[in-house]
Amino acid sequence: MSEKIAFIADSCADLPKEIQEKENVFVLPVIVSVEGKEYLDGVEISAETVYHQQSQGGLPTTSLPTGAMVEKVFTSVLEKGYEKAVLFTMSSAISGTWNLCRLLCEDCKQLECLVFDSKMASLAEGALLVELMEEVEAGAVDWEGIPARLMELQKNTFPYFGIDTLEFLQKNGRIGKATAFAGNLLNVMPILSFDENGVITPVEKVRGRKK
Fold this sequence. Notes:
Elements: E1 6-10, H1 17-20, E2 25-28, E3 31-34, E4 37-40, H2 47-55, E5 61-63, H3 67-79, E6 84-89, H4 97-107, E7 112-117, H5 122-137, H6 146-155, E8 161-162, H7 167-171, H8 177-185, E9 188-194, E10 200-207
Parallel strand pairs: 1-2, 1-6, 6-7
Antiparallel strand pairs: 3-4, 3-5, 8-9, 9-10
Helix pairs in contact: 3-4, 5-6
GO molecular function, one term: lipid binding
Keywords: Lipid-binding
InterPro entries: DegV, DegV_C, DegV_domain_contain
């Protein structure tokens, strides 16, 4: 029989709806700011809305959850009878969510919580949660074995992603204006990944999406 363990992820894990609706899964929304207004990601604003804002020239930004939001999730976990939880966050190299959750977890004495820095984001982060959850539910991994199994899963997960335009990286200060202009002019799409420290790193550059 599998142990009663809760699984928590920040909303950047992009968990499928059917996973989010499972009784032992809890989502911690990050904050999305659009035109001076703040929204809870996945609750008050959707990814489609964010993409639309970008296409209209807007520049949505994200920030980590508040301490009260993290504590609210912990309370929900405890109210459902869980005493152990694994909390997945996006890479600590691009967000302070991991450190915030780690500190608050230490203060929550009722909940034994492992806060795991995925060193990734989006679907890769979510894939780690889903794989571990399935193994725990199947009885293949117990609580004591989770840290080692997570490190193994992380080591063998290789996310790659591309972006259609360099415009928003330039607006956020990730690259220079001249580089963005040249890249967009030449229709260059960088292929990105995360290095061993969770830093977004260019892997390759291709022309357009066909390749």
